[in-house]
Amino acid sequence: MLDIKFIRENLDLVKKSLKNRGSKIDLDSLIKIDDSRRKSLSEIEALRAERNKANDEISGLLQEKKDAKGKIASMKTISEKINKLENQLKEFNGELNELLLNIPNIHHSSIPIGDATKKKNVRSWGELREFDFKPLSHVELSQHLDIIDFNRAAKISSSNFILYKGWGARLERALINFMLDLHTKKHGYIEVFPPFLVNRQSMTGTGQLPKMEEDMYRLKDEDLFLIPTAEVPVTNIFRDEVLNEDDLPVYYTAYTACFRREAGSYGKDTKGLIRVHQFDKVEMVKFVKPENSYDELEKLLADAEEVLKLLELPYRVAMLSSEDLSFAASKCYDLEAYAPGVDKWLEVSSCSNFESFQARRANIRFRRKDTKKVDFLHTLNGSGVALARTFVAILENYQQKDGSIIIPKVLRPYLDGATTLTVDPEPKSKD
Q1: Are β-strands 374-376 and 331-339 bridged in parallel, bridged antiparallel, or unpaired?
Q2: 161 and 88 share a domain?
Q3: Are residues 170 and 311 in the same domain?
Q4: 390 part of a folded domain
Q5: Is residue 336 part of a domain?
Q6: Are 50 and 141 in a shared domain?
Q7: Residue numbers of the domain that contains 57
């Protein structure tokens, strides 16, 4: 959330950022509402001072046993004016807050300007595999190995849901455990296991509401939402709290299922695992001092990259452009893993710095040790990494001519040492 004072003092900057994001929010209307709000507040303060003065004069008259009826009537009139203005002020505050909640974050000056085609490829890692046969898609491989049942998943729920079976379920679980172990044992994150349902304040704090409410799953009888990402509950752990400077940085990692309604709106991408309504993800969330946040973003990106390096999956890093940036992010990198069966680069991680945007909305602050000043901290988050697209990349990159799958070496300890997934009930070792 942007501070109204910041907007007023940096109006041209905010307008430029909105234009670069492709947003058509009318800041002039917001300023007019704030002008009315400020005028009402000023009038209230002046009337309160007048009422206090009248109250003192009434006390003096009563002490002197003089007639105070005129002053009392005057004070009553002033109080009525104050009440009317306070109601107006409440309305102005509500309108202003609603507008502020719909203004996206200021983008960082380093990101490319324009639509998604303007994203900047920062680097790539790994070599694309050369096949001596036509690689199958993950859908074909999953059906051949009988590790995912798409039809029964649709019967149980609806389209774009997943039913992992047997070693498919075990491979999914192995990926989750591998990532949690990596981030906790090597990268210094504390593991948490948060609720999958959150309240409206939590969704508003991280920026999903009010703008994206239609894309979220909401309970009918309670104002609770299924989380679109662990970023929501984990970031809100410190909502309305003040941390000490010595407590920072705080690194959390969490596995959760993630739920998104928009998955079914992408036509050609709705088959298989590329766009689904429910998927697993291991998330990384950071709470840091403002002066360190962009160094922390690069470290966050490196932590996500190491997952793909250890899985030996070719990937590339892209810096998102201004129009492709999420509502709350100031700067974001995407990690895209290559899937040869569908011949696509698939986004498996987004690593973002939100600066103080989420912290303002969620009221997360920290107290500086030397000055005792209380400031908003900076929040960051990144997928470390997301499934099911990583599952897709593994199947399609590690497939063999006979339809079997070589298990990445880093996952074998989580799968009883198995090296190969085949159509047999138990994976075999080719070592």
Answers
A1: unpaired
A2: no
A3: yes
A4: yes
A5: yes
A6: no
A7: 4-101
150 and 240 belong to one structural domain: yes
For residues 83 and 56, the answer to whether their CB atoms sit within 8 Å is no
Q: Specify if 171 maps to a domain.
A: yes
Which pLDDT score is estimated for 63?
83
Q: Per the domain annotation, does 69 fall within a domain?
A: yes
Please choose, from the candidates 348, 274, 338, the residue with its C-alpha nearest in 3D space to the C-alpha of residue 304.
Answer: 348
Structure tokens belonging to residue 382: 């990144």
> pTM (2 decimals)?
0.92
Which pLDDT score, from 0 to 100, does residue 426 have? 62
Q: Which residues, 6+ apart, have CB-to-CB distance to 6 below 8 Å?
A: 14
Residues 225 and 250 in one domain: yes
- At residue 64, the pLDDT reads 81
Q: Say yes or no: 257 and 401 in one domain.
A: yes
> Could you give the count of Cα atoms lying within 13 Å of 114 in the half-sphere of its Cβ?
7
**DSSP H or E run through 242:** strand 241-244
Q: Which DSSP helix (H) or strand (E) runs through 190?
A: strand 190-192
**pLDDT for the residue 149:** 96
The residues of the chain scoring below 70 in pLDDT are 263-270, 425-431
Paired residues of 74 in beta bridges: none
Model confidence over 363-400: pLDDT tens digits? 999 999 999 999 999 999 999 999 999 999 999 999 99
Domain end residue (candidates: 69, 101, 133)? 101
pLDDT score, position 264:
46
Cα 290 to Cα 284: distance, rounded to the nearest angstrom: 18
Structure-block tokens of residue 184 = 């906790």
Would you state the structure tokens that stand for residue 79, as one six-digit string? Answer: 């109080």
Which residues make Cβ contacts (< 8 Å) with residue 117, sequence separation at least 6? 321
Q: What is the pLDDT of residue 55?
A: 83
Distant-in-sequence contacts of 77-85, Cβ < 8 A, 24+ apart: 78/47, 78/50, 78/51, 78/54, 79/51, 81/47, 82/44, 82/47, 82/48, 82/51, 85/40, 85/43, 85/44, 85/47
Given the structure tokens 């000490």, which residue do they identify? Answer: 244
Report DSSP letters for 11-53, one per residue: HHHHHHHHHHHT----HHHHHHHHHHHHHHHHHHHHHHHHHHH
Report the 3 state secondary structure along 291-348.
HHHHHHHHHHHHHHHHHHHHCCCCEEEEECCHHHCCCCCCEEEEEEEEECCCCEEEEE
